[in-house]
Design brief:
Length: 169
């Protein structure tokens, strides 16, 4: 009986550890909120209950800003998606997220292709390809419920420098 209880305790602790690891980092969650609720429709959330995402944080800090690359998968097989280059910084009592660039991509047997290439031409396309490859190697994905992303947050502000290329809401 004691061994059975010890096994259940071990199993419960492992389950709790796995669940704790699955929680999205704050910067990813808040960036996803901007993609789902900003004044630009970066990600269509009307027909989905859960967004599948991955990310790569850029550890360089430039002029007080940090960068995060967010991938939102648009197929269940995660072979197509959108990548976003998002800059963020703290401003007074808010964290500001600014979508700096984005592209739609597909993963094919020949590699990563961009049906809708990013601004900046081949240089940015190569940068995005490298980021997507790093994200795929890490194999860490997060599932965020759309209803949690749609809750208003007064401590974040969403901006973009490329809104003329996106569809307004």
């Amino acid at each position: 009986m004691k061994r059975h209880f010890a096994f259940l305790l071990l199993l419960a602790s492992l389950t709790a550890t796995v669940r704790a690891q699955d929680k999205a980092p704050v910067a990813l969650f808040e960036a996803a909120q901007c993609l789902a609720t900003g004044k630009v429709e970066w990600v269509n959330v009307e027909s989905v209950k859960v967004l599948q995402l991955s990310y790569l944080a850029d550890n360089q800090k430039i002029a007080g800003s940090k960068y995060i690359y967010v991938v939102v998968y648009i197929t269940p097989k995660r072979d197509q998606g959108k990548i976003f280059d998002i800059r963020y910084w703290d401003d007074s009592h808010q964290r500001v997220y600014s979508v700096e660039n984005n592209a739609t991509f597909a993963i094919t047997p020949k590699g990563i292709t961009f049906p809708e290439p990013p601004l900046g031409g081949a240089f940015i396309q190569n940068q995005f390809t490298n980021v997507i490859q790093q994200i795929l190697r890490r194999r860490k994905r997060y599932e965020l419920e759309v209803k949690s992303l749609l809750k208003p947050s007064s401590h974040i502000r969403c901006e973009t420098n490329v809104e003329d290329l996106a569809l307004p809401k």
